[in-house]
Amino acid sequence: RRALRGLEATAGGDPGMLGAIASAYVDAGDANHGLSLIRQEIGRTAQPSPDIQLAYAGLLLKTGQDVEAASTLRALQNRPMNAAQKKTFDDLAFMYNIRQADLLRERGEFARAHDTLAPALAQRPSDTMALAAMARLYAANGENDKALEQYKRLLQKDPDNADLQMGAAIAATQ
Q1: How does pLDDT run across 121-146, given as a tens digit for each residue?
Q2: 138: which residues sit within 8 A by CB, 6+ positions away?
Q3: Which H or E element spans position 119?
Q4: C-alpha Rg value of the chain to the nearest Å
Q5: 49-75: per-residue pLDDT in tens?
Q6: For 68, which DSSP code?
Q7: What is the dihedral sign for C-alpha 141, 150, 166, 105?
Q8: Where does residue 58 rank: exposed (0-12), middle (13-18), buried (19+ CB within 10 A)?
Q9: CB 73 within 8 A of CB 57
């Protein structure tokens, strides 16, 4: 953490650097400091840059603060962004939708989870994260054969993925 504090001083107002440092704090178990670092930068101006807001939204997703992440993404939705910012925004919105589908699945709201996941799958039909979420949904809904088939296809692309291996094993034994 001492190294991170040293980097803070050199980051200035560079949103990319601040986002990386804040994310490292979260990874090191100090989510509050990471979030505080970004919040301080956001508070310095009346209209924070899309870059710092995107870094903040990513950090909020990483720490499971979905309500605030959704609010931040909504605030960014109609702001002008360059191509790189737009891609980051789209990726964060995509991850948010997957997370929401997983939360609905965990609450047993399978139809709503499917409805939340369907646009993500339509947008990125070969995305491992979205397909794995669908496999989890199949398994939770008792459709273990479909879940296992989905996991097998995913494992062909990513055979060393422990989460996929575990999901396949569970689906195979149900």
Answers
A1: 999 999 999 999 999 999 999 999 99
A2: 144, 146, 147, 150, 171
A3: helix 110-123
A4: 18
A5: 999 999 999 999 999 999 999 999 999
A6: H
A7: negative
A8: buried
A9: yes
Quick check: 136 and 101 in contact, CB under 8 A? no
What pLDDT is recorded for position 1?
66
